[in-house]
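thread: overnight batch results

M.L. [08:02]
morning all. the overnight job finished for the chain we discussed friday. pasting input first so we're all looking at the same thing
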Amino acid sequence: MDRAHPTSEFSGGAVSLEKGVALHRAGRLEEAKAAYEAALAAVPGDPNALHLLGRVTLDTGQPMAAEALLREAVAAAPVPGFQYTLGLCLIRLDRDTEAAKVLAQAVTGDPKLAPAYLELGLALRRLGRLREAVKALFTAAELLPEDLTAVSNLGLLLLDLDMADKAVPLLERAAARSPGTVALHTACGMAEMKRRRFGAAIRHFDRALTLTPSDPVVLGNLGLVRQLMGDLDGALAATDHALEVMPRRADLWSNRLMMEQYRPGVTAASLARLHALYHTRIEAPLATDRTPRPVGKNRPLRVGYLSPDVVRHPVGHFLAAVLPHHDPARVAVTCYADRPTGDAMTRRLKDMAAAWTPVASLDNPALAARIEADGIDVLVDLTGHTARNRLPVFACRPAPVQLTWAGYVGTTGLHAMDGLIADRWHVPEGEDDAYGERIWRVGGGHGYVAYAPPPDLPEVAPLPATANGVVTFGSFNAVTKINPEVAVLWARVLDAVAGSLLVLKTDALDDTATADRLRATLAAAGIGPERLVLLGQTPQAEHLSAYGRIDIALDTFPYSGGMTTLEALWMGVPVVTLTGATFAGRHSTSHLSVGGLADECVATTPEDYVARAVALAADLDTLAALRGGLRARMEASPLGDRAGFTHALEDVFLAAAGR
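M.L. [08:03]
and the structure it wrote out:
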């Protein structure tokens, strides 16, 4: 128990304090409290008695009463131990901002006060001040190397900051010291998943499941890693098991709905039925029956973009295409950046945005309140059911008009989502009934997005077949999209083009188990290793330069390429696609149609797909000419007309708002 300065050795106050400390340590809290009160009566205003009485009052679950005592103690003697206890009290009162200030004073006064660093780091983490939290928790872990709380929380925080390589050794050390702690094995698995070491992640999740076989968090993460490996059946089984245990967990439902998009044979109608369950299980308990406030008049329409993907991500590129071109006389735009970290794209988007509001530290009710306080007229979801989504915020109806655009692949299932922004290729006329939201089609010949390539876009390489003498097909789509039916169709293409090769590139292929699994899928379809090249993750410029190795891109189904197709086209590589039955199955059809390549590249049957790929491969001179002019052709098309697209998008916002 901390002391400021000693009470007289022979005073009654000192005796009572010593008695109180002994009782306090023995857990006899009410008796300790009485002893401290006696000490304070003997020496009124004694800071030690005030501190100890405040501490035992806090320990008996009375933080409000404890605060007054502790503040009096700190005022009388501002020593680090007293400040630490006051910080703990403020944390109990959910006043992290004040707690962080007091705890910072405590560690300044005593740089070896490890518990204060620990509590400071945790408070800063809750406040979203993550970089500061790392420093505090790192110091706590250094001072308390055997303390599982310090080490594991530092590891989890590093994981939140996308620093998985630094998180893994800390988390594994903690898990080794506490092998029966499910949360530590789960955290290790999550960290390995972020490092794309999927086999290692599964081992950690399996270990956790031996301890708690039906833990929904572990099962949900196991489902995610199996999805990333291309094991859709395993992913669905794990996620469905998790939902049986916890049927009202929003992130599990979002994962399950996202996985359904990859299932062969899926239709827009079947997706609508499944997504309707999100309303029943998640949205309905959160929904408000209050009348939405009216859209503002006689001023620019206030539009809010909400996304965690304000980084190098497809959504980041789509935002980069519109933010510089918004007309401030028509719309006043606020970007709600829901991510604690950033990259070069984040900085680029922030420079483009008229208003930029970081919101990663806000929980759903606080974020909804902030959006409503900002008077947003049209709130635009850019995430749907993908990772880190905030769909529960939309269920709270913080804006009078709520639309979903560009981040997901169709209906969200939310009754509070008023519209889905699409185009005539993604949702042809007559198919609106398959979607829960009203369909708003971007006009003017545009697709549902425009593309802004990165500033360091490499030059288009010459046609590889000219130098190689053989045609190289390729796909840079996620492994999850490459199902056995896709593999069979690709095998038919390779069989029809003598000596042709297949190059596949995606970050999941850095994982040996995933690469082996994909090789087995392709081999079963008849594509042997001698015709196959697998490539993993590289920096963006190198990734785009890798298109210099392929002549023709082959699309996936039922989930087609989106950003992957746009990147291929800008790198001079035509993409052969098979139009699907769902929103996700029509990305490439939309991009190719808007770009003027439907006749060459858009197929409607598997036989047509093979025929179009073979036709492109049969005339290398024409293919080389197409490659050389494709980037300029895309820039001249509506895909590259970023200002025109933005104006058409604003038309949608204004129409949806009744303006």
